[in-house]
Amino acid sequence: NAGVTQTPKFRILKIGQSMTLQCTQDMNHNYMYWYRQDPGMGLKLIYYSVGAGITDKGEVPNGYNVSRSTTEDFPLRLELAAPSQTSVYFCASSLRETGELFFGEGSRLTVL
Amino acid sequence: GQNIDQPTEMTATEGAIVQINCTYQTSGFNGLFWYQQHAGEAPTFLSYNVLDGLEEKGRFSSFLSRSKGYSYLLLKELQMKDSASYLCAVRDSNYQLIWGAGTKLIIKP
User: Fold this and answer.
1) How far is residue B13's CA from residue B80's CA, in Å, rounded to a whole number?
2) Residue B67, SS3?
3) Is the CB of residue A56 less than 8 Å away from at least one CB of chain B?
4) Can you spell out the DSSP letters for A50-78?
5) Which of A25, B10, B15, B43 is deepest in the core (most CB within 10 A)?
6) pLDDT of chain B along its 109 residues, tens only?
7) Rounded distance, CA B36 to CA B62, Å?
8) Phi, psi dihedrals of residue B12, rounded to the nearest 5°
9) Which residue on chain A is closest to B104 by alpha carbon?
10) How far is CA B58 from CA B13, B37, B68, B70, B103, in A?
11) Which of A82, A88, A80 has the alpha carbon at shortest distance from A109?
């Protein structure tokens, strides 16, 4: 069981570039999330999804987009990267009934 | 607004006991979670409380008082590997998790 897999682990972007962070889970979880974590801070919710075809904004959605075409995949798109998007990004999944989140290993993004 | 407070940093000695507190004010309550996060790694689940009282799991215990909006995580027989950040998170009425900033626990020999 792979759990939650996210790629890439590290990426450096130039200002204005775009990229997609990939996230896949093989636990058949209906809920999926994207968080960002800045140094010494807690997790901030960017977007979440309660099932295929359904997405919703979290606390800090500006500058990001998501899609959920399948139960397994939940990619995060960064358009026109800005230095403020330098952060560690975590994808996570859960079953609504339990709420325990299972996290991917994280993607460290630097925008220069 | 919704708010979760926990101390920024704590220091304890190997073999001792430490209590990490968490107070919360949220729109509704559907459970409180504690996660452990080692530096450079993803958070991992430690405990879940939805009813008042103490939940014990090995060296770790978590307590909840819903009337006081208060929880604590108790770590016994501290080991060096317990050096990590401990994140408190509350699930609100919309089943969304509200996260505290985390408590960095430093264990000294």
Assistant:
1) 9
2) coil
3) no
4) EETTEEEE-S--TTEEE--SSSSB--EEE
5) B43
6) 789 999 999 999 999 999 999 999 998 999 999 999 999 999 999 999 999 999 999 999 999 999 999 999 999 999 999 999 999 999 988 878 899 999 999 999 9
7) 13
8) -145, 170
9) A40
10) 19, 18, 26, 22, 21
11) A88
Per-residue pLDDT tens digits for A50-67: 999 999 999 899 999 999
CB count within 10 Å of CB A68 equals 19
- With CB atoms and an 8 Å threshold, state whether B101 touches A101: no
Quickly tell me which residue has 């819903």 as its tokens: B66
Coil/strand/helix, residue B34: strand
Residues of chain B numbered 15-74 and touching chain A (CB < 8 Å)? 30-31, 33, 35, 41-45, 48
Amino acid at A107: S
Nearest CA to CA, how far is B23 from chain A (Å)?
15
Closest-CA distance, B102 to chain A, in angstroms, reads 6
Extract the tokens encoding B77: 């027989």
Q: How far is B15 from chain A (nearest CA, A)?
A: 26
Nearest to A107 by CA among A57, A37, A18: A37
